[in-house]
Amino acid sequence: MAIKNMIKTIRVSSIIIAAFLLSCKNSNAQVAFTTGDIWKDTDGNVINAHGAGILQHEGTYYLYGEIKKGTTWLVSNQAWECYRVPAGGVSCYSSNDLLNWKYEGVALTAKTGYANHDLDTSNVIERPKVIYNKKTGKFVMWMHIDSKEYSYARSGVAISDKPIGPFTYINSVRPNGSMARDMTIYKDEDDKAYHFFSSEDNKTIHITLLTDDYLSHTNSEKRILIDQSREAPAVFKHKKKYYLITSACTGWLPNAASTVVADNIMGEWKQLGNPCMGDGADSTFQSQSSFVMPLPGNKNKFIFLADKWNKTDLQDSRYVWLPLIIKKGKPIIQWKNKWNVDF
Ligand code: GAL
Hints:
The chain has one helix and 25 strands. The chain is mainly beta. The two termini are 22 Å apart. The relative contact order is 0.13. Beta-D-galactopyranose binds at residues 51, 126-127, 182, 231-232, 251-252, 288.
């Protein structure tokens, strides 16, 4: 027990020292997460990584997200408010403390003037997630690929030898023939990786086991939250239980999040209700889930990553990163204006 506590103290101290050293070196260094505000990288530029996910690899965190840059426009003749901004590809940032992020460049480049190419700026590249494959030594990125009015409904895959890219785009698929929009990838402790995506016109979530190289889908799949119209999936594990947080389907407008839990990924998922508590819980604090990141050194602390979309100026969308803890088997997220990882 004493040794365990010592290790824990050393881990926490090294995070604090790393953050301190960074702040000495870098005048843009931050000491706390400022929720929903403009967030800058270590060069002082606004972080451009929406619908983001984090990969931890060899002691470094890598943040990947949608690059939203340019004028927002409204796609005509749609039944909903289909606001679009040019798909700028996928950005990558690195960090040692999850708070101060260094820009590593464009990990996956978008194309201009190739309207039929998945990565053309006129299309949709959303919710990129990267995992590392120990067997092949490759970094694999999955993302939602769509046409500007969201009828293409596919998942794209890209590969790289390095976490910061450049990633080479392979292709896009409808997994086992199914529509695929909002998505995430969850890599389990046994290195099996699962693709969670909104399918069947966003009505039902599919979970599909990826092949061992993580580049395609197996036939092993499960339909969950059937006809419940959920999207923005974020998956994490705590004490052998799997948790999935999703949003409702209201386009760029925020709504109440909801959690389900399961003992087995391909098993039964049970409702746990809204993980958010307090003022703003009904709108997920004006945001929409994108990822849940476990904090190192502590088995019951996570960061909930969400997007605060600005539908008429999408490039000015902000980030809501909040602490998440599990109380009596239920994830709890509460609003905090400013906080740090020692919550
Ligand atoms: C949201 C979805 C976003 C984006 C948006 C378009 O519901 O989660 O990733 O696709 O719809 O309106």
